[in-house]
């Protein structure tokens, strides 16, 4: 039986952090055994908000792919590409934009959140950037084109993307209805079930908050960052009994990255006041560095052979374009254009 197509993408935000690793990439690595996976860097989507900050775009796109490859996304199993290398996606986006009612996109809650964030940033920004462009309004339509171009049956996403995907399903139904076809599958979301990893300061982890640890950070930087993690704030001295449940960053990282025995030991010693937070975090830094050592090593190997990486992307883009072209021939036929 032929494998179902799976599509997922990430915006080109540059080097990825632990949150991406736990929340997305480890999941993708497993999915590539089961599905025909298309993983792409959404560089057009990046422009919906960062159209005026493109100085680092080329490097950011490459950095995303370098992290994927280092973490085990395998070009022999999965198709890896840049969105902007597949012109068929743009063509499909135009056709979908014709059949998408304005109010479907206008009431997309995720989009509303994005605009709110932009507005907040804008208050401190003299550039006077327009808050909602035509392109940003079309964000979920472009996302639908990404998914429908590969006629995906399944789309792994985080909860914040569910609203977009609901619009995709509506657009699929509407297309099939209007053009009297069963060309498109209704793609099912596959929610990523992972504990949310917080940044070192206890807030949501994100590059723009400056509280993230990158997959590609050096051992030294990682250790330093781990020492900045907040711990149980009610604890004054190291022989005070601690509360691992209140240690939302350091202990959570243990639960995420250490083996069960270690977690158990840390928990007991902390509760009994037999473990100081500084020592505890030093050990945590070591554990995390050990875990990421092979990944970092692999990344450096790919960095040294960047032409190979560019070839992987070129080949992947060709494959993705061929798949999208297959879809587009049927689409043009259905639309009679
Ligand atoms: N909007 C997604 C995000 O910000 C990225 C994305 C773009 C995507 N197109 C997609 C994800 C298609 C899944 C399928 O995370
Ligand atoms: Fe957290 Fe470790 Fe300190 Fe306990 S000893 S509060 S687990 S950092």
Secondary-structure topology with pairs:
Blueprint (H helix, E strand, L loop, with lengths): L4 E7 L6 H14 L4 E7 H8 L6 H15 L7 E4 L4 H13 L2 H5 L2 H15 L10 H4 L1 H11 L4 E4 L4 H17 L9 E4 L27 H9 L22 H8 L2 H12 L5 H28 L1 H30 L2
Parallel strand pairs: 1-2, 2-3, 4-5
Helix pairs in contact: 3-13, 4-8, 4-14, 8-9, 10-13, 11-13
The structure holds tryptophan (TRP) and iron/sulfur cluster.
Question: Could you characterize what this model shows?
Answer:
This protein is mainly alpha-helical. It has helices at residues 18-31, 43-50, 57-71, 87-99, 102-106, 109-123, 134-137, 139-149, 162-178, 219-227, 250-257, 260-271, 277-304, 306-335, and strands spanning 5-11, 36-42, 79-82, 154-157, 188-191. It has a three-stranded parallel beta sheet. The protein has a two-stranded parallel sheet with strand order 4-5. Helix 9 (162-178) links the parallel strand 4 and strand 5. It is elongated. Bound molecules: tryptophan and iron/sulfur cluster.
């Amino acid at each position: 039986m032929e494998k179902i197509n799976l599509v997922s993408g990430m915006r080109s935000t540059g080097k990825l952090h632990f949150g991406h690793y736990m929340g997305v990439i480890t999941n993708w690595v497993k999915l590539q055994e089961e599905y025909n996976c298309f993983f792409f860097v959404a560089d057009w989507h990046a422009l919906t908000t960062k159209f005026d900050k493109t100085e680092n775009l080329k490097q950011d796109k490459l950095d995303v792919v370098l992290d994927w490859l280092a973490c085990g996304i395998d070009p022999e199993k999965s198709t890896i590409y840049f969105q902007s290398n597949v012109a068929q996606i743009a063509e499909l986006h135009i056709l979908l934009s014709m059949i998408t009612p304005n109010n479907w996109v206008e009431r997309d809650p995720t989009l509303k959140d994005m605009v709110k964030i932009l507005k907040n940033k804008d208050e401190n920004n003299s550039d006077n950037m327009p808050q909602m462009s035509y392109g940003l309004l079309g964000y979920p339509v472009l996302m639908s084109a990404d998914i429908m171009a590969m006629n995906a049956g399944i789309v792994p996403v985080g909860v914040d993307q569910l609203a977009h995907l609901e619009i995709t399903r509506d657009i699929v139904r509407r297309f099939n209805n209007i053009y009297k076809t069963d060309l498109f599958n209704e793609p099912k979301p596959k929610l990523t079930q992972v504990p949310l990893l917080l940044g070192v300061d206890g807030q949501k982890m994100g590059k723009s908050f400056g509280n993230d640890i990158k997959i590609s950070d050096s051992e030294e930087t990682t250790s330093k960052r781990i020492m900045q993690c907040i711990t149980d704030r009610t604890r004054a001295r190291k022989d005070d009994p601690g509360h691992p449940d209140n240690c939302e960053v350091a202990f959570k990282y243990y639960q995420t990255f250490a083996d069960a025995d270690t977690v158990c030991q840390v928990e007991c010693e902390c509760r009994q006041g037999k473990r100081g937070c500084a020592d505890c975090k030093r050990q945590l830094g070591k554990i995390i560095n050990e875990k990421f050592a092979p990944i970092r090593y692999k990344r450096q190997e790919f960095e040294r052979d960047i032409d190979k990486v560019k070839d992987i992307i070129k080949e992947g883009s060709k494959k993705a374009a061929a798949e999208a072209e297959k879809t587009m021939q049927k689409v043009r036929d259905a639309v009679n254009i």
